[in-house]
Amino acid sequence: MDIKEVEDNSIIEYSRRSLAVSRALGDYEYKNVEGRGPCEQLVSPEPEVSVMDRDEERDEFLVLACDGVWDVMSNDDLCNFVRSRLVLTDDLECIANQVIDTCLYKGSRDNMSIVLVTFPGCLQPSADAIQKEVQLEATIERRITELVRQGDNLKFLHVLQTLADEDIPGLPPGGGLSAKQNFIENVYKKLCPNKSDSVEL
């Protein structure tokens, strides 16, 4: 192995540690090796493409998302979460926002974007599912109220941690308690308006 190969291998190893994925746009410092074509650079813009046949009756939806989402949700988690939201609303912008919020609360620190496309086979809003969500939120609100009444100086983080330690039935699959954090914050602010500035994490 000559010096040039050693240098190339070192750069490749560095790029693997500093980049999570290959990118078609940007990262120019990994695409300027002289004598190599565009697809032979350290970071290749050449996409990996898979072709799948569509099933008009069974296909429900398609999700396109970037690292910030996949860092904290698996494929199954995200699909289950989106399904659980589709039975509550057909507002795709609302569902996409809920995914991003949930990922933030799960601790994602990377860029996040998501595109959600539904197909004719997707789930529709259901009165039964909506009623279950109402009951879930009533249960959470009742528990937060109990916690706040137990202590005059109860901080939001303590409320959140207590709820996380409890087995609350009916939380959104794939999202868990993180999917209800906006709701929890709003309830806490309503019950403790003088502490609303302490909600920021």
Automatic annotation (TrEMBL):
InterPro entries: PP2C, PP2C_C, PP2C_C_sf, PPM-type-like_dom_sf, PPM-type_phosphatase-like_dom. It holds the Pfam family PP2C_C. The keyword Transport does not apply. PROSITE patterns: PPM_2 (PS51746). Gene3D superfamilies: Phosphatase 2C, C-terminal domain suprefamily, PPM-type phosphatase domain. The keyword Mitochondrion does not apply. Residues 1-119 form the PPM-type phosphatase domain. Keywords: Hydrolase, Magnesium, Manganese, Metal-binding. Its cofactor is Mg(2+); Mn(2+). Belongs to the PP2C family. This is PPM-type phosphatase domain-containing protein. It comes from Timema podura.
